[in-house]
Amino acid sequence: MSDKLTEIMAHKRIEIRDRIRPVRDEELARFGARGGNRLRNALRDSEELAVIAEVKRRSPSAGDISAELDAVEQARRYINGEADGLSILTDEKYFGGTLRDLWDVTDFIRDRNRSTPCLRKDFMVHPIQVLEAAEAGASAILLIVRALSIDELRQLRAAADLAGLDSLYEVHSEGELETALSLDPKIVGVNNRDLSRFVTDLALSEELIPQIPDSIVTVSESGIFTGVDAARAREAGADAILVGEGLVRAEDPAALIREFKEA
């Protein structure tokens, strides 16, 4: 695990320490009645390249992107562009997000009578975070394979399954992909950004995505800014792309989403 990711994960474990408590299966299962696979189905059912549009204020690699960004207003722009899903960053220290952002965006989606699924993008380490995601209306959680032990991956996946949430397994190497595939994933994301050096290369998607069985929904993450980038991810076999910085910086995010989808 990279030095920066080690730092982030260590901080996250301290940050949530006071919130940690046993999470009962019954607490999670009451959300499962909403039905599962909402993100997976939205990505799989898209006839075009699916787009997960991310609400993102800053990152360790880019610094401040849009420090005063309004999560709901940005989500509105994405929905107007027919994004297939939204990614809501809820980590505050490194990405400027909050769990409140997720609540507000899912409330907005519900008020608009839409069904756009939302991914809680955070550094998941304990089932309490899965319960928080379900309570806030999320449809999926992120599991960073390199940051978690096998036991933690299984525990978090089990909690997500009970709550009817999809799990997006994020990988950055063949070894991590092998680990993810051993856990029967439904969605695998290839992060093109090397968190140890903050270097981004779409060649990683071109290398790893062809190794993923067709039954699994594949997502190319990071480093996608133009229609040419999106076409490259599509050519590699990606079912979807996850885009944050490019869309936040775009003058017209809805138009850029449409450009991506036409790739």
Description:
This protein is an alpha/beta fold and 263 residues long. The chain has one domain (3-16, 31-261): TIM Barrel. 42% of the residues lie in helices and 18% in strands. The strands form 3 sheets. Strands 1-4-5-6-7-8-11-12 form an 8-stranded parallel beta barrel, surrounded by 8 helices. Strands 2-3 form a two-stranded antiparallel ribbon. β2 (58-59) and β3 (63-64) form a beta hairpin. The model has no long low-confidence stretch (mean pLDDT 95).
Order of secondary-structure elements: HHHEEEHEHEHEHEHEEEHEHEHH
The CATH architecture assignment turns out to be Alpha-Beta Barrel
Poorly predicted ranges (pLDDT <50, ≥5 residues)?
Answer: none
DSSP summary: helix tally: 12
Strand order of the largest sheet: 1-4-5-6-7-8-11-12
Q: Enter the CATH topology name.
A: TIM Barrel
CATH secondary-structure class: Alpha Beta
Helix content: 40-55%
Radius of gyration: 17 Å
The number of domains is 1
CATH homologous group name: Aldolase class I
The biggest sheet, with number of strands, parallel, antiparallel or mixed sense and barrel status, is: 8 strands, parallel, barrel
**Spatial separation of the terminal alpha carbons:** 33 Å
Task: Compute the number of strand runs.
Answer: 12
Percent range for β-strand residues: 15-25%
